[in-house]
Amino acid sequence: MDFLLRLLYTIEKSGEWAGWEAIVRVAKHRGLVGRLPIELGSAAVEAVGSRAVYHERCEALRQLSLIGRHLGVALERVDGEERLGRYQVTIRSLQTLPANSPFRNMFDEANPVCHIDGADYASVRSAVLYQMRWGRFVADQTVHQQNNAPSYDRLRQLARQQPPVWHCHTVGTSHNAAGGGRDRMIVLHGDQPFEASIAIISYPDFARAILWTTERQVAGKEGAARIPQTVRVAQRVMGDDAQVAFGNQLDVAIG
Q: What is the pLDDT of residues 4-32, one digit of tens each?
């Protein structure tokens, strides 16, 4: 009975959960969640910690403390510090956010900017998208400003564009002020039967695009022909940007 009362209290005080739906589905495709809906047991409630710790946290961290282990990114309070896996997490406020931060205009107190391992993430949920185990890389291209300026400029633009990107709303963004880097993770397809996402990594002199998927490979095929559904999704969602990001790596006759 004590467990049920604690679970009820935790859920009632946890806030709005809609922002986690797409992330949970991505976790399911990546093999982190066994089945949906997530089943919360006593271990999940214990992971939340004390009521005092729970109420000190922002809404997104309260929710993550309950479901993080199901996403492969357990949240813990260690010696007064928040830790996401092996990384310390520092929650930013508008007062502690650098004046030139690209995230000031989108700041959300319920799901705030956080600092992890040298980079600021647009939100707690952005950080979780990055920390979850990725799928299998199927296309990867790096372009340099000096030898492919058009592709470089477009990838840099996509890394900075306010969401949605290509009408995709499940987007994670990070910013490394010291190195001038801006990274972006975009879920292109998160419904059945697979998930496909792209990461765009951009720095002052180069930009890199990586496509990964959980689609089961077609036996006896090579290259992009092994992942026809992912190719269809990338070409449909990204349009001409699929060529910009990956050159001819996704060129294949798809029936």
A: 888 888 888 899 999 999 999 999 999 88
pTM to 2 decimal places: 0.91
Q: How many residues does the chain have?
A: 255
DSSP tag of 14: S
Confirm if 91 and 111 have CB atoms less than 8 A apart. Answer: no
User: Residue range 232-243: average pLDDT?
Assistant: 96
CA distances from 2 to 51, 167, 213 (A): 14, 45, 42
- Give the full edge-to-edge strand order of the sheet including 81-84: 75-78, 81-84, 87-91, 114-116, 119-121, 171-176, 181-189, 196-202, 206-213, 136-144
CB 144 within 8 A of CB 205: yes
Dist. CA 211–CA 234, nearest whole Å: 9
Contact between 224 and 251 (Cβ < 8 Å): yes
